Amino acid sequence: MKRQIIRQFIDQMEWITPDNASYLIDGDFSPTLYRKWQKTLEVMTFTQNKDKALRKVKNTGGSVAYTLYRSKRNGLPYNNYWHDRRLRNCMAKFIHTNGNHDLDLNTYADTQAGSLYFEFDSGSETTELIDKIKRYYCGQGVCRAIFFMAHRDNIERLEKNRLDYLFDIVAKLLRHKPNRVLANTYTSYLKTGKLYNFRREEKSPTP
Questions:
Q1: Residue 123: its pLDDT value, please?
Q2: CA distance 148 to 197
Q3: Using CA atoms, how far apart are residues 186 and 191, in angstroms rounded to an integer?
Q4: Looking at the 3D structure of the chain, how many domains does it have?
Q5: Are 69 and 55 in contact (CB under 8 A)?
Q6: In a domain, 85, yes or no
Q7: Do 109 and 179 lie in a common domain?
Q8: Distance CA 64, CA 4 (A)
Q9: By residue range, what is the domain housing residue 186?
Q10: Going by C-beta distance under 8 Å and a sequence separation of 6 or more, which residues neighbour residue 125?
Q11: At 206, is the pLDDT very low, low, confident or very high (cuts 50, 70, 90)?
Q12: Which of 76, 82, 84, 121: CA 20 to 30 A from 155?
């Protein structure tokens, strides 16, 4: 069952790393869990049934992940690798916390599940974030945007600044729709699985 969940995640998100698998199955991470899932993923590359087998993919920096044997993917991104890996940690935690969702990478957001749109943000305080919210999340209709706010150098104490910046924007643009955008810092979300609106009220991700 656990291997089936892993294969389903890879089918939707293209590849997985041991830390992704750890958050997906255990909802947590530690060096011990990393080694456990690295061994499991490695074993899955030796599965005789090619419909169920995995294979390794790498990028030019030497980073390794696992994809489905039948996948057409031949490598990993280099420039966006850590963005994509941390996004997968968040999506894995989301599924562990909220149950299975059909994820789709073919969208203007980082990924999508029905009317839920997921954004992993590790940028700086530019107008890009304002423009994105205005363009995609201020319109009519039922949808919810979930933001995981990180720091480009993975500095935990600076993640809060990114979250504060997002909530300041949302408070100005979507005051009448306080639950249209939910968010948390990357580190806090992986620890708690909780999401908040700009009023800092904990909310369910389901619209």
A1: 78
A2: 12
A3: 9
A4: 2
A5: yes
A6: no
A7: yes
A8: 21
A9: 104-192
A10: 165
A11: confident
A12: 76
